[in-house]
Specification:
- It is a single chain.
- This protein has 11 helices and 17 strands.
- Helix 1 crosses helix 11.
Length: 336
């Protein structure tokens, strides 16, 4: 088995490892494809990283061996999500997996998928239908987190959801909002990303360098402002500006992915004055199947978010580029 390992900040080494045995409840997968996200890049350059971890938090793979007590079989194509939930804490027992007390993360607290084979728990896998191709499936965690954010927002049909940050996650959240017949308003400082959002159906977009977002949203909403603001923590819009877009008694949902190093400094005074509720969403819960259904039914289009493709041997150069570049587009890594 071959695996790229982080051995020091900004250093990846290709290692040969012994084949892992497949225990009860587990499957061995051949890793086919994955993408490098911002938390992956930050893990790569962080001095706090465990210098033996294989990065990359999720993947699409093929089951090559199944342990006892599993329903997956050899040849099944699966998506492996970044989170491993314990299944035993009070949150898991009540099916509130997003609040698991003992959650672990592939690529951060346990080995990820910058490797050719991996043994994972069947509970971390989702079977992929033929209608969902590998290049789309690598985005499933983003769609699942967006779904979790929609649930947290409580926004109803016809109401407004401001999305601060036209990152991969922000653009996907806009499409998920449209699926639920919520009106998304996308804010960013990059016209190219805003135009991509428009092409994917997000009609209202605001460049916060050229327009005052709060004033624009005041007019779009007839003066009541937005029922909820989803602040994308990897985006370029300051949290203080996001808060100004919410109506009185509304919600601020801060959305990110575990492992990111985000700047969320802001004044709490507007929260108090306007009676705002603040929630955090950093995990997908068990929304993977919902995300798969959205891809299968063409409710979400991720094709414009793909920057290109590289091979397994190119992983170090891809990480070096991703750790320096603010680009939100994703490069697919082909490992098979």
């Amino acid at each position: 088995m071959k695996a790229w390992k982080i051995t020091a900040p900004t250093t990846l080494k290709l290692c040969e490892e012994q084949s892992e045995s497949v225990g009860e409840g587990n499957v061995k997968i051949r890793v086919n494809k994955c993408v490098v996200s911002k938390p992956d890049a930050q893990t790569y350059r962080s001095p706090k990283t465990d210098y033996s971890v294989s990065p990359i938090g999720s993947c699409v793979g093929m089951v090559v061996e199944a342990g006892e007590g599993v329903s997956l079989t050899r040849g099944n194509r699966v998506f492996v999500r970044p989170q491993h939930y314990c299944g035993e804490c009070s949150a898991c027992r009540s099916a509130n997996y997003a609040c698991c007390e003992n959650v672990e993360y592939y690529g951060i607290t346990r080995d990820g998928f910058a490797r050719d084979f991996a043994v994972v728990s069947e509970s971390d896998c989702a079977l992929l239908p033929d209608r969902v191709d590998d290049d789309s499936a690598v985005f499933l965690d983003f769609i699942a987190i967006a779904t979790q954010a929609m649930t947290a927002s409580g926004v109803k049909k016809g109401e407004h959801l401001v999305i601060s940050g036209a990152s991969t996650l922000g653009i996907i959240l806009g499409q998920v909002a449209l699926h639920y017949q919520v009106v998304p308003i996308l804010i960013d400082i990059n016209d190219d990303y805003l135009e991509m959002g428009k092409q994917l159906g997000i009609y209202y977009t605001i460049n916060s360098k050229k327009q005052n977002p709060a004033q624009k949203i005041f007019h779009l909403t007839g003066g009541k402002m937005a029922e909820c603001v989803a602040h994308i923590s990897s985006g370029e819009v300051p949290l203080t500006d996001s808060i100004k877009c919410a109506g009185k008694g509304g919600k601020i949902v801060v959305v990110g992915r575990y492992g990111g190093d985000y700047n969320l400094d802001c004044s709490l005074i507007p929260l108090i004055e306007n009676g705002l509720t603040v929630l955090g969403v950093g995990s997908a819960g068990k929304n993977t199947q919902i995300a798969i259904n959205m891809l299968a039914n063409k409710a979400v289009n991720v094709a414009p978010l793909v920057a290109g493709k590289v091979l397994f041997d190119d992983i170090p150069s891809l990480f070096a580029e991703a750790s320096e570049s603010p680009d939100h587009l994703k490069t697919i890594v082909e490992i098979k």
